């Protein structure tokens, strides 16, 4: 019984992570898009970054503080990072979010240059 409970708990945790990340899920051989709601902070930060990096090939902002807006994780891929070291790429993101960062406890930034 304990193994079954652990398995169900693990499955529920994985499902919640998928919902939070807004990924595509395959259920019974059919592809379904998980519905997720974005926090006000995620929407605000996404808007700022889209304005600052209009050529971004991909952008994902996730509130990893449980919804309180204290910590975010940002994944951004933009040609504007080409030729810059990682620290310089992160400085560009920090500069774009200078007003928002003042109210945060932490920020994880992942940057990349598009491959194509």
From TrEMBL:
SUPFAM superfamilies: BolA-like (SSF82657). It is found in: Mitochondrion. InterPro entries: BolA, BolA-like_sf, Mt_Fe-S_assembly_factor. The keyword Mitochondrion applies. Keywords: Mitochondrion. GO terms for cellular component: mitochondrial matrix. Pfam families: BolA. Transmembrane segments: none annotated. It comes from the Eukaryota. Belongs to the BolA/IbaG family. Interacts with NFU1. Acts as a mitochondrial iron-sulfur (Fe-S) cluster assembly factor that facilitates (Fe-S) cluster insertion into a subset of mitochondrial proteins. Probably acts together with NFU1. This is BolA-like protein 3.
């Amino acid at each position: 019984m304990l193994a079954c409970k652990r398995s169900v708990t693990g499955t529920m945790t994985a499902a919640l992570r998928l919902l939070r990340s807004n990924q595509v899920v395959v259920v019974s051989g059919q592809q379904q898009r998980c519905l997720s709601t974005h926090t006000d902070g995620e929407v605000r930060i996404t808007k700022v970054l889209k304005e600052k990096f209009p050529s971004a090939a991909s952008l994902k902002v996730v509130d990893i503080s449980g919804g309180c807006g204290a910590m975010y994780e940002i994944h951004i891929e933009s040609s504007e990072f080409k030729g810059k070291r990682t620290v310089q790429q992160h400085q560009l993101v920090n500069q774009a979010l200078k007003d928002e960062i003042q109210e945060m406890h932490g920020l994880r930034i992942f940057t990349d240059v598009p491959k194509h």
